[in-house]
């Protein structure tokens, strides 16, 4: 048996901001410096990625895009936004450890 759990970050009034997919996209943008390349890496359309970046910028700020085309443009995440991604990953990892503990208990019960 398995236990499943999803986490996300939301606004104080309950609007979702960042979940697992968003973290993956933003991490790829951070690593590549490119929304287009990040979109390709996580298998979403450029339009979806661009709209997501605009949403995050509107809610949290911290995304700087530079126009310029191939080799001249780029996208950079602020230190604050990178820290938010780091905190999300820490929470995700910690929750996964707790889930493993309880899955083990379930499976021990199931095998006895």
TrEMBL record:
Superkingdom of origin: Archaea
Keyword Amino-acid biosynthesis set for record:
no
Q: Does the keyword Coiled coil apply?
A: yes
What InterPro entries does UniProt report for this protein, alphabetically? Molybdate_resp_trans_reg (IPR051815), WH-like_DNA-bd_sf (IPR036388), WH_DNA-bd_sf (IPR036390)
Which UniProt keywords are given for this protein, alphabetically ordered? Coiled coil
Which parts form a coiled-coil structure per UniProt? 81-112
Mind telling me what this protein is named? DNA-binding protein
